[in-house]
Design goal:
The protein is α+β, with helices and mostly antiparallel strands. It contains 12 helices and 6 strands.
Length: 381
């Protein structure tokens, strides 16, 4: 059996061997430091080329704090309705359109297609067109993107010579979210990548960010998307109330016309039969008066319902507080040149050290083994 002294000596020997191995590796890297520095220098130059070749992009963010109310009819509007003898009804529960669905709304195809016709203008006033045309024709790309896409464009151009001319837009120049062309679908996807919506689940605060290659376009489009989102949510939440209001207005016009007609008939009959005391005339007069009174009561009740319907639309209309409005960004958000340089230098350093420690010796060993095999083959002959 191994003695206790030998057991204690083994960890010490292993630790010393590891220290020697690490020192040898460090010495090997240090002896080839010029190669490492050259690699990092070339990587820095390449990183500068890449960093300055990527087009600048500007991000604009707005922060909205939506009004948080429960769907329970009450408060001043409920009291007013109770005084008028009208029950607006009450319902509890969360709104079907919660803030968590805002990102899905903004990324939906109908919402994106509605933005295609938005007029935009760049900061230097060189571009004044629609958002669709801007994303289709005025986007800058890195030089390597042009080089890599050139062969595919050439192949596509050659294929198009042997095909019949296709109808570019089956919707007669209008955008139809139900039937998009390939180009329109690609533009919608590109626009979706430039829109970002995040919602704080605890507070409901919504942050909308738009990234574009021009600062003024980024700010103006952010403001437009914010208002479009607000209008979409407002239309959704007030949809039923607005339909009820339209129906109440229709009933109000009909009741008003009926009351005016009954009033006119009663007045005409009374004026034409002032000195007649026959019971039949008095009965007809009483009947017309009752019809006029009934029409007035209906008219008065419908008028109250109309006012309540208007109040309900106003009550459930959401109010948004713009915590951070859209402002034209002064500095680009992309590309981060410092991080690109650090990444290239880091990869070059790690790659050169790995070459020195592992790959270089592996290639040397493989060459020696190959040479030895050749020598053995020659000797055997």
């Amino acid at each position: 059996m191994m003695s206790e002294e030998n057991k204690k000596a083994m960890p010490q020997q292993t630790t010393s061997e590891q220290e020697i191995d690490l020192l040898e590796l460090a010495q090997k890297v240090w002896s080839n430091r010029k190669f490492v520095f050259k690699s990092c220098g070339y990587a820095m130059l390449l990183g500068l080329v890449v960093a300055f070749s990527i087009p600048k992009e500007y991000s604009t963010s707005v922060t909205l704090a939506p009004e948080t109310t429960s769907k329970t009819t009450g408060g001043s509007m409920g009291a007013l309705a109770a005084m008028a003898g009208i029950n607006l009804g009450s319902s509890s529960g969360e709104d079907a359109l919660s803030p968590e669905l805002y990102p899905d709304i903004v990324s939906s195809t109908p919402f994106l297609v509605e933005l295609f016709d938005v007029r935009i203008q760049d900061q230097k006033s060189r571009i004044d067109t629609t958002l669709y045309t801007y994303l289709d024709q005025y986007q800058r790309t890195p030089w390597w993107g042009v080089v890599l896409s050139a062969p595919f464009k050439a192949v596509g151009w050659a294929i198009s010579l042997f095909k019949e001319e296709e109808k570019l837009n089956p919707n007669n120049g209008k955008f139809n979210s139900f039937r998009l062309t390939k180009d329109e679908s690609a533009i919608a996807d590109a626009l979706n990548q430039r829109l970002a919506v995040s919602v704080d689940k605890k507070t409901g605060v919504t942050t909308l960010t738009v990234t574009m290659q021009d600062p003024l376009i980024s700010a103006s489009l952010t403001d437009t998307v914010m208002h479009r989102l607000q209008n979409y949510i407002t239309d959704y939440r007030t949809n039923k109330a607005r339909h009820d209001l339209a129906f109440a207005e229709k009933l109000y016009k009909e009741a008003k016309a009926n009351y005016a007609d009954a009033q006119k008939k009663y007045a005409t009959f009374v004026d034409a039969n002032q000195n007649i005391i026959l019971l039949s005339y008095r009965a007809e007069q009483e009947r017309l008066q009752n019809e006029m009174t009934l029409a007035y009561n209906v008219y008065s009740q419908v008028a109250q319902q109309l006012q309540m319907a208007k109040a309900k639309v106003q009550e459930i209309t959401p109010v948004y507080t713009v915590v951070q409005p859209a402002t034209v960004p002064l500095r680009p958000s992309k590309p981060n040149k410092i991080m690109i340089l650090i990444g290239f230098i880091f990869l070059a350093g790690v790659g050169s050290v790995g070459w020195i420690l592992f790959v270089k010796d592996l290639i040397k060993g493989w060459k020696k083994k190959t040479a030895q095999i050749k020598e053995d083959a020659i000797e055997s002959v």
